Structure formats: structure tokens, C-alpha cells
Fold this sequence. Notes:
mainly alpha
Amino acid sequence: xxxxxxxxxxxxxxxxxxxxxxxxxxxxxxxxxxxxxxxxxxxxxxxxxxxxxxxxxxxxxxxxxxxxxxxxxxxxxxxxxxxxxxxxxxxxxxxxxxxxxxxxxxxxxxxxxxxxxxxxxxxxxxxxxxxxxxxxxxxxxxxxxxxxxxxxxxxxxxxxxxxxxxxxxxxxxxxxxxxxxxxxxxxxxxxxxxxxxxxxxxxxxx
Length: 206
């Protein structure tokens, strides 16, 4: 009698469930994020889920915490600048977060924000992430010599732009999208410097 080969049972860790849940969240929203949907996608039984999570709510909190930690880690990394190169880093932040490669991240972001409209725990996590994003960006503007009030306005404008552009289909609006993005980045990052230079020039009669 021939030996029958037995496929080893798939062993999934907690992170695998959280990653799959985040994908479902991006595609179908919080209403579509169900244990049976995840089990089918991962090709395992629902019993595997309960090795790692007490219930669906436990999974949802893990998704939120993982998203929060990843977003905060990312913004701290992206806004870290060498002394004297803060303006360059502002341009980097604008470029990174307005790039088309962030489309999947934008889908997850939108799903989490929609979730936050109905769930106080999700709302608290989103507020924490937004506060950190704004604070880190404001520190860059402050390091460039921008006054506190204006730095607050500029970091808000920066994020209004990068989030807004992620929702828009604008490729046909202008024949040179790269130039359009450069101009917008200059408006966000440079106009204060240009204004200050104009004042200095006026004072010296130039």
C-alpha cells in the first residue's frame, strides 16, 4: 500500500490575521471584516482564529493598534531631518505622501477614518495619529524659522493637500502633473521664505 502524503496544516500567527484583516478592511470596509471571510481568504478554519484572538473585537483592536504604530513610526521616520536640512525634508514629506505609490495606504486610511465615524476606539486612534503627524510636520517648519502660528497653519495645509490629492483623479487636469506638484510643494514650503526675502530686500532698497 502506497504511503499517502499528508499536507501539513497551515500555521498562521497573529500578525498574519491582522494583515489579512487590514486588506479586507481596505477592500470592503469595517462591515465586510468578518471572521468567516478572513478564514476563507486564508484557507483555514475559523477555529484557527480563536487560537490568537478572543473574539472579533479583539482582532479589530489589533488592526487599529497595528495601523497606529505603523503610521506613527512612518511619520517620525519621514520627518527626521539633519540640522540645516529641514526645508529639504519638508519637500521630501510632500513628495512621499502625495505619490501614487501611496494609493493602497490611502485606501486603508479612508477605511479606518470611515470606521472612526462610528466607533469611539477607532476615533481615538485616528486622533492620536493625526496629532502626531501634525506635530512632527510643524517641528520641521519651526526649525526653518517659521513662527508657531504659521507653522501650525502650514502643517495643516500640507496634510490637507496630501490627503486631498489621494482622493482625486487629476491626471487629465494639467499636461504636466510633475510641474503642478512641484509648484504646489513650493507654495506650501517656500512662500514664507520668499515673503521674508522680499521684506529684507525692500528694507535694503533692492
